[in-house]
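Dear colleagues,

As part of the handover before I leave the project, I'm documenting each prediction I ran so the next person doesn't have to rerun anything. This entry is a single chain, and its sequence is reproduced below.
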Amino acid sequence: MKNVSAKSKLLLAVVIFVVTFSNKSYAQLSPPGLGEAKNASWFAFGVRQSLDSLKQKESTTYVGVGLKSSPDENNPFSKMAILVINEEISSRYSKNWEYSYALSYRRSSNYDPKAPYETLYPAIEQEFRLYGRYSYIREGNGLKWKNTVRGEFRKFFNPDFTSAEENFQLRTRLKTQLSLDLGSTKTHHIIGGAEVLFAISKENEPEKQWSKFDYKESRLTLYYSLTPHEIPFIFDVGYMYNLIGKGSDISDVNYLAFDVIWKNPFGT
């Protein structure tokens, strides 16, 4: 969708300038970007395991599947978009500071951006991703605050592990969120967030050269999270608004997301 409305441009400004926060305990498994579409969906199942008795170190492993529509249709389940397998280790080493590091494998489907949006050759692009986060956290009065800087190294391959058009990418992500407890039982939560992404790439085609480091996209999320005390699961359902590109070359995608996280299946 080109030349989106003034409302969408206002949302971009909000993403860049708003300062909101979150707490890791209620962090959802947010959707990855799936490229141009009209609507998309994301489903993930994860396991979060404490690695020490103080519960300062955690492992989060998840598998996720993303589906999407073509840019001119509404069905968010019509096309396979991505398979994600992700492992992240985090450490809350002080009251207000946390770091994490992760390895991720992603298998994305390639479609022609022009109608009738048929599958391209090669139909699949593989990605191996290394990333690290560094976060500042504050909490109190039912609010959980978190601001995060995330750096990524992304390496791309064709299905047979030959070189893809894009060799690798270095990406920087700035994210802020706010988590609000609904009531005193700390069972129901609302999580709002905003993120901006910047990147530079080393290309294989058409020439082996670097792209310019530039703004790429913004993501706004709003989630409802349920953390029952009776069972060791977290249930998240939410919405993400993805604004891709800038200026006259801009498009937007609406995401429906659902994930389940199993807490400490191997004991605490």
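The two ends are 48 Å apart (CA to CA). Residues 12-25 have pLDDT under 50 and may be disordered.

All the best with the project,
I.
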